[in-house]
User: Fold these one by one.
Assistant:
Number 1:
Amino acid sequence: MMTLTYRNILTSTEDQIGIVTLNRPTVLNALSHDLMDELVKALEEFDKDENIRVIILTGSERAFAAGADIKEMSDETTISIMNKDRFATWDRVRNIKKPIIAAVSGFALGGGCELVMTCDMIVASETAQFGQPEINIGVIPGAGGTQRLTRVVGKHKAMEIILTGRSITANEAHAMGLVNRVAPVELYLDEAKALAKEIAKKSPVAVKLAKEAILKAFDGSLVEGLEFERKNFYMLFSSEDQKEGMRAFLEKRQATFTGR
């Protein structure tokens, strides 16, 4: 595999496992455009590497990823954010053929929670917190949150989580079926590696086709749902509430929403 140098992530290998670690500690691994570009490149490199059977995506003990980089988005308009089409990067994550296990500790909020849900399995530490708090800054999840979360936890739980913006614990997420396993914080990454090693022992082609077949169960309506969600996400950048919500976030004050 060609070795690439990254600024926002770290990569390593262990046996037949490729490990990608989000590495923007000063901003709790906020998902900037640069980070997402690097992440996709790393995932695609591991996907092409015949020595790699399974991929683990992780962050730090304090945060998997606390959300999108709001600073990058706060001044966008509906037209500007549509033209940039940053979600094309997220679609490339969805197209990775090898199984991806998210090893999550601390915050997995907003885009961080959405990134976790693009993975195929989730191992969480007892400190993990999952949530879609976009409603608090005047927008909605735009990278699959309304669609993937609803498919996993059902309409009523998804409504509560997304419309209140509140976080759920690792144990709550496990009870809802969002998380495969919960482990002590000092063991969660080892637990993810153990799961990865178990899968790495299986036939690579069978694993690949099994993943493809499982995802096919969701794909038809998921694509339509993602398109619908995306248009609504874009439209919110014409609202005063989006400007106020993101400005208040950056100014570290309480937002005042007007419904306009």
Number 2:
Amino acid sequence: MKQIFCIFMILLIHSQLNIENAIAQDNPIGDGRKILSLSAADTLQADSSKIIEDAPLDIGQDRGLFIVAPDQKLQLRILGSVRYLVVYDGINLPSKNSFNTFEIPTPTTGKRIPNYYNGLEQTRLGFEITRQTGIGNVFIRLETDFAGANGYRIRHAYGQMGSFLFGQTWSLFSHLNALPSMVDFAGPTGSVVARTPQIRYTLPRLIKKTNIAVGLEFFPPDLNIPDSLQIESFQLIPDITIRANRSFDWGSAQLSGIIPILSGRNGDDLGIVAGWGLSGSAILNSWYSGKWYFQGVAGQAISRYFTELQGKGFDIQFPPGGNYTTPFTFGFYATYEHTWHEALYSNFTYGYVSLEKKSFTPENIYNKGHTMKMNTFWDVTDGAKTGAELTWGKRENKNGINGNAFRFNLLFYYDF
């Protein structure tokens, strides 16, 4: 945190020096100095070539401090958001920024102890640089928050020029356009919301106003290897992703595909397993300021892309004395959103995720998760917002034993 603050102050001081050096020759003030007046026409923020995929509750493109170089060829944008989260759990769940049905205890695995929590991990700080060159604009984005395992986490860190993008940002297998606004950091149950290091190439409006993008993404396999097997897992070949999206009069639609490549070594033997995944989403404009959101995801060897199943080792399962198997995973959610007033809206979401049963897996292994969420957001004033969320969730095990939990969240934040 101290290092981030120091970097921020250095950039701020440096920008102030640049502004002093870029003082205009008019507008004299009393002490003999000049001031520089910037208008929207002076900035590069309207650059249409940069790739910015905003998720719900992301800092708006019109927020931040814009600093422009004297030659008008470089722009620095400093942006941030202070976010204060209040959580009340009817049962103590480990993750506070996201509701995960995998963590719900069943009657045989935990006691129902309520829990209250406050946190600032969702607070964000970011920098964006746009530089004009003779062959097009170069755009660089760095955004962080404090929700990582050790407190600090990189959300986005990438560079883009023309149709090429290099670095970490949203996976092409994620469908940001169809995500409803939620206090829950992870989005709806059954959704795919992942950021990966990647190389991407985008073809805008390639076929009848349809945007096509292809990528090579790095997302290491998520395996739970038995102690009896001396297997080392790694990613030898990047995941191959492709996405197509298009806007219509009635809303928008998106399709994505992925071929995940899982690699492992047992002694001198090298094994490569290819999975598959498909995801589709749509937004439908509805009556009386209403809107519907839908997403469905299915595949094998893709469990790490689901928030509920990340880090649980379900990409591949190993039967006793046998080979390996890639369980089928399916997720789905549906949301209805209604705007009550230009500054007030609510949404209602049902989410579902399932992991294929296997005869050799333990009876208490996770099988299905259900959630119902209700969110309401109020734009208090320019930049200041608050959101409230009520969640009910249920976990079902392979043997049919289940547990349920509820959570109430409040989020207060200011984007500057």
Number 3:
Amino acid sequence: MNAPMNAPVGAKQWLDRIRALPLPPRVRVMNVCGGHERTISMAGLRKAIPQNIELIAGPGCPVCVCPEEDIHASIGLAGRKEVILAAFGDMLRVPANGPKSEPRSLDEARAAGADVRPIASPAEAARIARDNPHRDVVFFAAGFETTTAPVAGLVAEGFPPNLSLLLSGRLTWPAVAMLLESEAPGFDALIAPGHVATVMGPEEWSFVPERHGLPAAIAGFTPESLLAALYSVLRQLIERRAFLDNCYPKVVHPGGNRTARMLLDETMDVTDATWRGIGTIARSGFSLKQRFADIDARRRFSIVVDGARKRAGQMPPGCDCARVVLGKIRPSQCTLYGAACTPRTPIGPCMVSDEGACRIWWSTGVREREPASAA
């Protein structure tokens, strides 16, 4: 892996360097992370960089890809009088398909009387269980590696006996690998997520240049770090030499966070997993190891997903969230964007989560829908 370039003082210098590059007529750069997309949109970077550079939002929203069967399982568990259902805040409003006569989100289940509690950390789920020793508490844990690692720490530490885990953890890089192995990946270079690399190590992303010959750079969450990564991959494209550049060296180190990785290895297996609207991606999910079966909510409550529900795990009718997540269309090209689907009345998960591209675009002022022909 090449060492990072000497960073200039601020974003303006990076922009000047980018504008001075002899760029091809069109360059498509995917930014994987929802946090990156938020910085890009809030800082107005798309308007600041040359117009022939297209920044594409990628599959970095765990709420957006959480399987519908897991959402239905959480709603079903929340409907049991003896259960307290704890979940990260974004998950409460994620809509699932179903008849209007039944709750179609955890928020609707809570409005119907279920005891659903939004939390910000795994430790809060354990505290709720300790504070309510005579009730079953289920922690619905959806997220990528950075969220799943603290969950692994909680599992290793030991659950209160009345706490169980409905795990819906995913790994980030397999979705990118799936795109690159498809016939039309849709991007020429990649900006990889700094927080995931902090936990799992930058080496996870070396497959992008080594197997696919595409430039890649790891970025943090400031405009300066993102522009440094963008400059790096553009230089790589121009010079026709692809490598993985670490543009977040203060935080991302070789090998990642060894303690977090050890906890993940000790408590969880990597398995094939379903991504909502996308399908099954090989070795892209986390599941509890057999010795922790007693805290697996699916086993403790004998949750069985019927075949129809598993096959139906799509986005709501008319919702193009899956294509947005895969970078196939821009958020504003979804037919529901800004019409039926807004943050106040979200139809799809991409308009719910703070890491969803549709929510980010709307929150930063993109209110008009554009025709799909503009893709």
